[in-house]
Amino acid sequence: MDTKYFFDQAKDFIGRNNIPNITLYHYCSQKAMLSIVENEELWLGCAANMNDTQELRYFIDGVEKCILSTIFKDKQEYCDTIFENINYRLREEYPFVFCLSELRDNAAQWERYADSATGISMGFNTIKLVALLFESFLSFTKVVYGYNAFEHDICNVLREYIDNDRFIGGFSKLTGIIDNLLACAPKYKHDSFCSEQEWRICSLLKGFGYDYKIMNTGIIKKVARINLKELCLQRGIAFDDLFDSIIIGPRSKQSVEDLKGYLKKLGHNILSEKVVRSTCPLR
Question: How far apart are CA 18 and CA 12, in angstroms?
């Protein structure tokens, strides 16, 4: 398939899902940014290690409360068994997540995710990113904050199965319903995180390989790799064109010219011209 096919699919996906054609930003340490550029790959972190203690549980617990409060009383024990299975699968198949934000040069994002504002904000081109991920084992979604799980269609589907042993909504197996529930869970977060304006690249562990990475702190964590170099070749997208900007954090002592020179040394001449310094007045 040629490059035009993937771009057409990306534009169609963006239109159908009301995704703004904007740059999305990944805040990280400078070491993490250099790892992405040097290796031409993304490392998705396991959602179990995120800073939100209700990660995934926010949605799943909401669905469980909905089901338990509306099903027949004699079905509650069966419902408990189903959610025990869901919780087991969640432990075994935790999704991996790569986080982005609509916020370009934001003080809170710098403090929280970019090495206390000494790191980098990588601006990803949305259309090219979606074109790259199309027809992969990954989802691309905007986070919804403060969502009431009672309103989700999966509640009606699961309730109907538990109460009446009947499949609706195009499902034919319980495993399919659970798959859908687990796939939806990363999209929803507690409303206290709403200021982050987050988007996510997500993958369930099932069917997706993982590796281990030594973090800046020296701690080893499970991660999933996305080979950007290989995907770029398949899609006909230049690696440097995936990025609209590389922003140096407001507390960083890194000079713009030296970072540009290093990126040129790596062969990323186009990317080097996108390096700028943050204008955020964070002290």
Answer: 10
Enter the tokens of residue 281. 């007045």
Smallest Cα–Cα separation from 188: which of 150, 159, 132? 150
Evaluate the CA torsion angle 255, 119, 23, 238 in order and state its sign: positive
| H or E element that contains 80 | helix 76-92
Name the pTM for this structure.
Answer: 0.91
pLDDT tens track for 50-59: 788 888 899 9
- CA–CA distance, 246 with 263 (Å, rounded to integer): 11
- Position 191 confidence tier, pLDDT thresholds 50, 70, 90: very high
How many C-beta atoms lie closer than 10 Å to residue 223's C-beta?
18
Q: Of 26, 238, 242, which Cα lies nearest the Cα of 130?
A: 242
Contacts of 33 (CB under 8 A, 6+ apart): 119, 120, 122, 246
Identify the three-state secondary structure at position 99.
strand
Residue 40's CB is within 10 A of a number of other CB atoms, namely 18
Parallel, antiparallel, or unpaired: how do β-strands 188-189 and 144-145 relate?
parallel
Q: Which of 94, 63, 54, 47 is nearest to 200 (CA)?
A: 47
Q: Give CA–CA dist 227/272, Å, rounded.
A: 21
pLDDT of 101-157, one tens digit each?
999 999 999 999 999 999 999 999 999 999 998 877 788 889 999 999 999 999 999
Q: How far is residue 60's CA from residue 65's CA, in Å, rounded to a whole number?
A: 9
What is the C-alpha to C-alpha distance for residues 5 and 178, in angstroms, rounded to an integer?
32
